[in-house]
Amino acid sequence: MILDKSKEIVISVITETLKEAKLDDEIQVTEDMQLIGGKSLLDSMGLVSVCLALEDLADEHGFEFDWTSEAAMSKSRGMFRSVAALAEEFSNQSEV
Amino acid sequence: MIIVTGANRGLGQAIVERLAESSEEVLGLARNTSGMKIDAIECDVSDYASVKNASREVKRMKKPVKAFINVAGVASMNMAVTTDESTVQKLIQTNLVGTIYCCQLFAPIMLRQKQGSFINFSTIAVALALKGESVYAASKAGVESFSRTFAREMADFNVRVNCIAPGPIRTDLLRGITDKQIDRITSQQVIPKQFQKSDVCDLVELLIDEKAASLSGQVLNVGGV
Question: What is the CATH number of the domain that holds B167?
Answer without folding.
Answer: 3.40.50.720
